[in-house]
Amino acid sequence: MVGPGECDSPPRFSSKEGRYTLIFTHDDAGGPATFVLEPVSGETEVSANYSQEDLDRLKNTKKCPNCDLSGADLSKADLSKADLQRANLTDATLTGADLKWADLTGADLRGADLTGADLKIADLYDANLTGTILYGVKNLKKTRNLNLANLTGAYLLAASLSRAKLTGANLYKANLKFVDLSDAKLTGADLRSADLTWADLSDATLHGASLEGATWVDGRKCAAGSIGTCVPGRPN
Fold it and tell me: Which class for 182: exposed (0-12), middle (13-18), buried (19 or more C-beta within 10 A)?
């Protein structure tokens, strides 16, 4: 649990050398404040595993299904309505990117940094977001589809996923502290060992969801056999 004066940072926080700008935001709604380090363009080290041809095609046409964009620096890029179906975006930097209406169906976003990106009406059906940083993402709750998405270990602290479609989603070991999951559809979702401390699950659908080992909203650990509801574990 994050208390007064404490902070919770992403697992890959400041993983690359370079110059950063510190951004502070707070919505005055009682939630935690957000501090984001945003790389200064052109002055932060970026890996170069991607295909330059694919990157150029994306920038020129916004159509790049099956492209290799692994490790590419796409921070603040205008990717609205881009076709990125099944694209390889592992370890890509997408901080502040405009991904409104983007088609990311089946895309591989493992380890990508989407801090502050706008995902309004984006389609993430069957996308792999294992270890992805989604800190401060905009309009995540308005994402078209997160059904079957793999969010294993994803960093979603204080994200808004109210009414999100997460049927069958893999949220194993995901950081869901303070996340708004009110009225979310989590039928059959894998929430094992996820951290749901202070998350809002009011009216959420958890039918068939696996909660074994998860940390519940009140800090309790969910025991083995917790399906659809958190069965408190025996005290030590």
Answer: middle
Q: Are 200 and 181 in contact (CB under 8 A)?
A: yes
Contact criterion met (CB below 8 Å) for 21 and 68: no
What are 225's two structure tokens?
């056999």
Q: How many other CB atoms are found less than 10 A from the CB of residue 2?
A: 14
Tell me which range, 2-16, 101-115, 157-171, is most confidently predicted by mean pLDDT: 101-115
Q: 131 with 152: CB under 8 angstroms?
A: yes
Q: Which two tokens stand for residue 26?
A: 């707070």
Residue-wise pLDDT tens digits, 209-221? 999 999 999 999 9
Strand partners, 60: none
Instruction: Give the torsion through C-alpha atoms of 122, 180, 191, 230, to 10 deg.
Output: -150
Task: Return the structure tokens found at 205.
Answer: 């659908």
pLDDT of residue 19: 43
Kindly list the distances between the CA atom of residue 28 and the CA atoms of 25, 31, 32, 118, in Å, as whole numbers in the listed order.
Answer: 9, 7, 9, 21
**Cα 135 → chain centroid:** 7
Tens-place pLDDT, residues 136-152: 888 887 887 898 899 99
